[in-house]
Design a protein that fits this description.
282 residues, Rossmann fold, 6-stranded mixed β-sheet, 4-stranded antiparallel β-sheet, binds adenosine-5'-diphosphate, binds magnesium ion
């Protein structure tokens, strides 16, 4: 997964604690600086600055309308930021196309598009690498892609099966995506995102509508991937999930970052309690 870093470490162990190598030093993989996004008169993101540390499961929380999804969309090229900068592994990726960003190893999950509901789980997975082209583009090229993928090599198919087995949805391979339960859909969405072997995965409410059994399965998969070296940024409204699973939390409110730190510290922050948690904190 992180071949470059491993190779560097093997070649010269003295570099392991960061010898000034910009790409694999102690630098956080994701740095967001003064990010701003307006839609007409609405300011969705208003100067957000934060970073995500390597190998962490970091939570991004905040009340509805705080700007979390827009932030994700600006990071992954779905929206072009109005101002500010996004850096991934030290490189400026601000305003790049979704597929370009995905090729560098930064992806977000996408909801299964209507066209994909009429395809099987297996077909969805075969199309996943191209799905990272971005939804709008994807829709326009989908018919051509489908015929191209039909004769695709065994290598891709093998990778697809591995991913399906990992997420324990291999028994659903021939099922139409439109027939999946909410939780199975979320597993498929994650399995699709993982097809490009990304470094950093952004998950926007991956547990919404997921039953407790599948929720546990999804969280287990995330932890397992994290142990293998992936980094995750997770938007989730269930504070128990955040407290029990994230080592760091970023709190957004009205398009800005209100607090950042370990979950215990963040939930004790007066501003956070006032803005977000209200009287819910015990
Ligand atoms: P969150 O994900 O934290 O609930 P969003 O990023 O979805 O927040 O939304 C932040 C604000 O931006 C909201 O006021 C929302 O209505 C607005 N907004 C989000 N996307 C758009 C859009 N495409 N056009 C206009 N306003 C938008
Ligand atoms: Mg949202």
């Amino acid at each position: 997964m992180n071949d470059t870093a491993d190779a560097d470490a093997a070649a010269d162990p003295r570099d392991a604690d960061g010898g000034g190598d910009a790409a694999s030093g102690g630098q956080p993989p994701l740095e967001v600086e003064n990010l701003r996004k307006t839609f007409g008169g609405i300011t969705a993101v208003d100067g957000a600055t934060f970073s995500v540390e390597e190998g962490t499961l970091t939570g991004l929380i905040g009340p509805n309308g705080a700007g979390k999804s827009t932030t994700f969309n600006c990071i992954t090229g779905v929206h072009e930021p109005t101002a500010g900068a996004v850096r991934f592994q030290g490189e400026d990726i601000t305003g790049l196309e979704t597929h370009d960003i995905a090729n560098r190893g930064l992806v977000r999950t996408f909801q299964i598009a209507r066209e994909l509901e009429e395809m099987t789980v297996l077909e969805n997975m075969m199309l996943a690498p191209q799905g990272q082209l971005g939804e709008r583009f994807f829709h326009s090229v989908l018919p051509g892609l489908r015929s191209r993928v039909v004769g695709e090599e065994e290598e891709l198919l093998e990778q697809v099966w591995q991913q399906l087995e990992f997420f324990e949805i291999d028994h659903l391979a021939e099922e139409y995506a439109g027939n999946l339960s909410g939780g199975q859909r979320k597993l498929l969405e994650m399995a699709r995102a993982l097809m490009t072997d990304p470094e950093l995965v952004l998950l926007d409410e991956p547990l919404a509508g997921v039953n407790p059994t599948l929720e546990e399965k999804l969280l287990d998969r995330i932890h397992e991937l994290r142990e293998r070296g992936n980094t995750f940024l997770l938007v989730e409204h269930d504070m128990d999930v955040i407290m029990n699973n994230c080592e760091r939390v970023i709190v957004m409110h009205q398009g800005q970052v209100l607090a950042e730190g370990p979950p215990e510290a963040v939930t004790e922050n007066e501003q956070v309690i006032e803005a977000y948690l209200g009287g819910d904190v015990e």
